[in-house]
């Protein structure tokens, strides 16, 4: 049992590329910490630095009160579950799990007990004599977990362990990993690019981008109060609508509260915080007039893609894949609501559901 | 290509390299540099003393008509063997690629000459075509053809070429078959839909797609003819009659062994090394191109 | 093929059957000759069906040797061939798997230098440097020894390149998992890399065994005593007497014996053989 503390951790590659640009955070004993971010944000590198598979350029990594910067991976008292599982293909399931224990010189009966116990927990008892290639993806995943838990380490490290599974199995394993971690009460650091996985698993969520931490906190808090536009659009699906406003619009919108003093900014509204009204009805609070572009009906809910009525007549051009074109807004409504394409609607949101960010998106502006 | 995960060991990697490096220095670099050095020396008949004579060995070498003859022989021999073994192997490979049920069985039969030692192959072929006792020489002579590879240089060359081709067909066949099987069937089907008949498809689609394999095999075959056919020549003709089948490698051997002229033999070795290095360089340029292909 | 014409198949079968005939006939003839007596073989009218002297010929070849010249019996030569071919194959695998491991899995000064020193040997087969190598062997007193037959032929980069290529395909995570499991470089090599390399080792063994077995020029030079010669060099020596006196039936029996082990290896280990062949040339 241990906590993990990172102090101003940096990683610069020999070529000069700075992958990790000074990161600080602490994972308390028994907590489940998830590092989330887009690919290339440095989250896997950071995890591998904790594991000892990558060197640390500067800063300190502390596991259970011991600085581990110069300590070999095997001596750090950690266990890791790899994305491709990295099972030894020529060893049986039993030997895959026992290998690390044998290398430590553990007595045979003790190894036997631990492996059997892990096999029981993970329900892979009948497969102990098989080779990894005779197992399904989900079973391999379990063996990889088993290899980690027999070690009874201070910290579990997970590197996108579910990304090779199909969607259904991924959800099942996600729940299982969480249950297992609670039961063993072992500190865990888990890397993923899937925000849903991150939200559901984390005690502490660390949102990373470009080698820095964008926000740390508990998942709901991050969802409710994203610190930057990056976090706002990364956490939550579909992403938060972000609408640039100039000073006048801002002033009109937030008349009467401190936020109206901002020069210009970005207004954020989650799709689920919007509701729609027929255009004829008058509204109070915040309202957007939209023309319906496209509709996605997924059953329990419907996503409405609407174009804002342009004042300046600028065409709506998408900036980046996955990002809304300026002026396009997503509204998430219950499944039975379905306006026609081309219909004009008004989407409204209560004032307290509005988020405001500085014009560069780097800062949240609260009341 | 580099591994991103590795060990930091200090001494261990050097220890792991020692056996191979020792062997390589002892039996490769040392002799190769000796050859280079000796090619500038003249040794007396008893090997007791030697003088540095600069390029004289090379001058003597290139003044010999026999040396040019051996170059010509090597060129003729190489091109005949390469062209014949490649075309015959390609013919067989295209037939075996036709998805025949029996193709694997044919493959098993086709590959075993590869396992036959060149010297043994030479013995088998001289036995078949021996002027007095050869099973296949008899019909030739009965038809009035004065077949005698032991006396006629052209006949000897023909026999050496046949034996060398016979041995090399297997290798070429395997690579051509693999090359053919790597061509997506859909490309050929597209050709058929575009109205190309089987012959036209072969020359306009299959053959161009096969060209990396063909070029690779061409280089391998030339290297094969240069070095691996020594046993065939020694068994069939011993370089004769009258030097008609003396290739450059055979001449290095014969001059060194029979003449005892180590300086001259070393000079020949050096010339051969230069030729081989040039061929290898061509091969590597090609390999690079193939990677991009 | 796209067409479904029956004659297409017939032509293919005809061409392939002809091919097999060309490939097989010289070997067939050798087998036939090894079953006749000397007179039948030499008179130029040898039948194309087996004769009745097989046992006699093979017995003489293996245990006695030729009668007109005092020769080594083939049994002994077979043993020499087996020892040197196995030695070459095992030696090459041994030195090259170690050096490939060093080059791929370690970072150390002069790593690339070492790699190039080994790599250059690809270019020059032993044939170009026979006399200087012979002299080195003589200086080291290795003439007429198994070491002399074996060592110079294992100085080559083929194996190193093959293993390097295979190691590059082994996922990095296996090494990382091993490090977390507490395995150092030697443990990782023995426990993980070696078991994974079994097929590659076997394929290389097949190719190198054939290569070693079929050597001719080098054993010819390095062995001066008949007791050290290999079977491939031995056959030729049986035929160096005048042709009329040469015992062709014994030479052919010897040829058959010389072909048997490598052909058996190729035919029975075809998949390994093809794999080894294709991969050593990449």
What does this structure look like?
The complex is a heterotrimer of chains A (367), B (293) and C (282). With 367 residues, chain A is α+β, with helices and mostly antiparallel strands. In chain A, 25% of the residues lie in helices and 30% in strands. Chain A has helices spanning 43-51, 93-103, 108-122, 137-149, 167-184, 195-201, 219-224, 229-234, 247-253, and strands at residues 4-12, 18-27, 32-36, 58-63, 66-67, 78-81, 155-159, 187-192, 204-209, 212-217, 241-245, 265-269, 275-278, 286-297, 301-308, 328-334, 344-349, 355-358. In chain A, the strands form 4 sheets. In chain A, strands 6-7-8-3-9-10 form a 6-stranded mixed beta sheet, with helices on both faces. A 5-stranded antiparallel beta sheet of chain A has the order 13-17-14-15-16, with no helix packed on it. A 4-stranded antiparallel beta sheet of chain A has the order 2-1-4-5, with helices on one face. In chain A, strand 9 (204-209) and strand 10 (212-217) form a beta hairpin. The model of chain A is unreliable at 312-319 (pLDDT under 50). Chain B is mainly α and 293 residues long. Chain B has one domain: Orthogonal Bundle (MetI-like fold). Chain B contains 12 helices and 2 strands, in the order H-E-E-H-H-H-H-H-H-H-H-H-H-H. In chain B, strand 1 (41-43) and strand 2 form a beta hairpin. In chain B, helix 3 (65-96) runs parallel beside helix 7 (153-182). The model of chain B has no long low-confidence stretch (mean pLDDT 83). By secondary structure, chain C is an all-alpha fold. Chain C has a single domain, classed as MetI-like (MetI-like fold, Orthogonal Bundle). Helices cover 71% and strands 0% of the residues of chain C. In chain C, helix 4 (74-105) packs across helix 11 (198-213) and helix 13 packs antiparallel against helix 14. The longest helix of chain C has 32 residues, at 74-105. Chains B and C meet through helix 1, helix 3, helix 4, helix 5 and helix 7 of B and helix 1, helix 4, helix 5, helix 6 and helix 7 of C.
